[in-house]
Amino acid sequence: MTGSDTTTPSGRRTRLGVMGGTFDPIHHGHLVAASEVQGWFDLDEVVFVPTGQPWQKAERAVSPAEHRYLMTVIATAANPRFTVSRVDIDRRGPTYTIDTLRDLRAERPDADLYFITGADALTDIFSWRDADELFELAHFVGCTRPGAEMDPATLARIPHDRVTMVEIPALAISSTDCRERQRAGQPVWYLVPDGVVQYITKHGLYAPTDH
Ligand SMILES: Nc1ncnc2c1ncn2[C@@H]1O[C@H](COP(=O)(O)OP(=O)(O)OP(=O)(O)O)[C@@H](O)[C@H]1O
Ligand SMILES: O=C(O)c1ccc[n+]([C@@H]2O[C@H](COP(=O)([O-])O)[C@@H](O)[C@H]2O)c1
Fold first, then answer.
1. Edge to edge, what strands does the sheet with 45-50 contain?
2. Could you tell me the keywords of this UniProt record (predicted)?
3. pTM of the model
4. How remote is the CA of residue 124 from the centroid of ligand 1, in Å?
């Protein structure tokens, strides 16, 4: 190993977790998953990357990117290892993870990338753009959550040294559930960080008429 590619005090390459999501809104399931994977792989940093245009969610209205970006900043602000990137929201057009990983690699050539995703999202990975190339750019970490186990046939198609499944504490929270609760006037306290509850209220997100 040469001096130019070692950037941590221990001499190993930097490990950068990448947590991509629509985050409409970000919730404690996302934060626990990122925190667990950070510890599991001893990641130096986890960068949260809100999607610009999530093309596979085109059938439903998604909140404006700036709202989703700011809620992600609020939710991650207290953790010194968590950061937020604008690469996907500042790129025009549909968001593809292949572009996310290329952009982050250009920004951080010193780092090994670990893309963190839910098992449900990982099950669909061969429908993503340039799927086979994704595994050359990052190690994939699939988080299982209740009701979202990984399809074994899909798992078998991923190069075995480029994917790890991690069982995280069961947090059956989804953004869909948070939006529906807010629309129904039910509390979202403790499902999302306090600052995100306040942001949702302040900006009138997920109002009853807003579907
Ligand atoms: N409770 C959870 N535990 C672990 N991973 C999760 C959890 N909720 C979401 N994820 C994962 O986080 C990533 C980003 O998720 P996303 O922003 O789409 O949230 P979501 O709750 O699945 O949203 P929606 O209900 O709107 O589809 C995805 O890879 C998803 O699988
Ligand atoms: O690259 C693709 O074609 C692709 C298709 C669907 C989802 N993704 C990524 O998967 C992550 C989770 O997406 P989502 O829609 O479940 O929030 C997020 O980073 C998306 O950009 C990527």
1. 82-84, 45-50, 14-21, 111-118, 139-144, 163-167
2. ATP-binding, NAD, Nucleotide-binding, Nucleotidyltransferase, Pyridine nucleotide biosynthesis, Transferase
3. 0.94
4. 13
